[in-house]
Design goal:
This protein is of the alpha+beta class. The strands form 5 sheets. A 7-stranded mixed β-sheet has the order 12-11-19-17-18-16-15. Strand 3 and strand 4 form a beta hairpin. Helix 5 crosses helix 7. It is elongated. The two termini are about 40 Å apart. The relative contact order is 0.09. The N terminus is likely disordered.
Length: about 450
């Protein structure tokens, strides 16, 4: 948004150019003033040549009044002309001085992504799609990149060089160091959480709510003779802050204050300080998948090992020797790059002790994820106890070793995963487990649970 001085008694012009649809620029322009005024005239210039005119007199759902515009261009500038700043859009009153409107970052990033993709595909779209399918995908998919090229070694990967700090469209992800892609913003506004201060009264109040909730969970379960363990998964940018493209001071203020308060509790041994252990690990860069916000199998193993240690169970070393290529939740935000990672999965056949694959005895799916449930039975497990975990995507269904449920279901004779930020005490009463695990992640701490 821009504000600037105008004429005819009006003080400020605000607005922005938000998107490009076909040959039309869409955006809004308004005057910050209480009195009535005619709609603004919006003009687009390419190298100072007028290439389109519109009036900001349309409604848009997220804006008050008739201030939106659709400006059809007589000449569509090229992507390099947009990116070089040669396209300028101005707004003015009929008798006033013009003010330049900024081109939205998302618009420019979309232009850039389309330009890169179309430039590469323009050489030979069909061959490029097949080639990417062979390099980046070991399994069939629903997009054109899934086709495989014969006589190409599917295990071979080629590095994709991207500048550190490059952002995805929509500012959801950002390129860090050593090939790691990080969450940048998202619905929980992660960067704002890093910028907050522990001295903020809202941070203090919310931290107290969390501590009160967790201590109540522990008290209720303890009275039922059930062991309780709570973990908070740290953000990838907290554990790998040295690989983040800019200097950030992790953990977030909310996480830091909650952990400090929990550490001061007399009966706070139910809380497992995962962050402290992972941040000190000698191979931190391998704890998270490079193109995902979630753990790699190594990260899941280390967290599982901490949970088990808190319960008095020792988990031995595990060989990670099965190589798997895959995509991730933040890597997929760069459509022109089609980023992948290489992770190493465990081979439990070489592990000391009796660890066997479990049987799935129940699966309840949900379109909203929350409410999803899976139950495993494992009569030959090394720990003959029943566990219920109220957790999220870091545990999930446990179909592979990059989710913590995969590990838990192999160590306990019965394991229940329920996708929920709350503890369902009715379910606990029904199942009567030996252990209940609660899990959330750092960016979700901006909301305290109800139970």
């Amino acid at each position: 948004m821009v504000t600037t001085s105008g004429s005819a008694g009006f003080e400020n012009i605000s607005g922005s150019v938000d998107s490009l649809e076909g040959d039309s620029l869409l955006g809004w322009a308004a005057i910050d003033a209480g009195s009535h005024h005619p709609p603004l005239i919006v003009e687009a210039f390419l190298d100072k040549k007028l290439i389109g005119t519109a009036v900001a007199d349309q409604f848009r759902g997220d804006l008050p009044g008739k201030v939106a515009f659709r400006l059809q261009l007589d000449q569509l500038p090229s992507a390099p002309e947009f990116l070089a700043g040669n396209v300028v859009v101005k707004a003015r009153l009929p008798d006033g001085e013009p003010a330049a409107l900024p081109l939205n970052d998302i618009l420019l990033e979309g232009v850039q992504q389309d330009y890169v993709l179309n430039s590469v595909l323009g050489f030979d779209k069909e061959r490029y799609s097949r080639l990417l399918g062979e390099i980046f995908s070991r399994r069939p998919a629903t997009d054109p990149f899934s086709e495989r090229v014969p006589n190409v070694d599917g295990e071979e990967m080629s590095p994709c060089l991207m500048p550190v700090g490059h952002r995805s469209p929509g500012n959801l992800a950002v390129v860090g160091r050593q090939g790691h892609i990080f969450l940048l913003d998202g619905t929980n506004h992660l960067m704002s959480q890093y910028l907050a201060a522990e001295s903020d009264p809202q941070i203090e109040s919310l931290a107290n709510e969390w501590v009160t909730c967790l201590t109540k969970r522990n008290k209720i379960l303890k009275e039922k003779g059930i062991a309780f363990r709570q973990i908070i998964i740290p953000e990838k940018s907290t554990v790998l802050s040295d690989l983040y493209p800019i200097n950030i001071d992790g953990p977030t203020a909310q996480f830091s204050l909650i952990e400090k308060k929990l550490a001061r509790l007399k009966d706070g041994d139910f809380y497992i300080p995962v962050r402290k252990h992972l941040s000190k690990h000698e191979d931190r860069a391998r704890i998270y998948s490079t193109v995902d916000t979630h753990f790699s199998p190594l990260g899941c193993y280390l967290t599982h090992k901490l949970i088990m240690a808190s319960l008095g169970v020792t988990v031995g070393s595990v060989p990670f020797n099965r190589r798997v290529v895959g995509m991730g939740d933040v890597g997929s935000r760069f459509p022109a790059a089609h980023l992948c990672s290489v992770d190493y999965y465990p081979d439990l056949s070489h592990l000391e002790g009796d660890v066997v694959d479990p049987d799935r005895i129940e699966l309840v799916e949900s379109s909203r994820q929350i409410g999803m449930r899976i139950v495993y039975a494992n009569p030959g497990a090394p720990v003959q106890k029943k566990v219920v975990a109220f957790a999220n995507s870091f545990f999930e269904l446990g179909l592979e070793a990059n989710r913590i449920s995969w590990w838990m279901s192999r160590w306990f004779s019965e394991f229940h995963f329920i996708w929920s930020p709350e503890i369902d005490f009715d379910y606990v009463e029904k199942v009567n487990p030996d252990i209940v695990i609660g899990q959330t992640i750092e960016r979700f701490l901006v909301r305290s649970p109800r139970s």
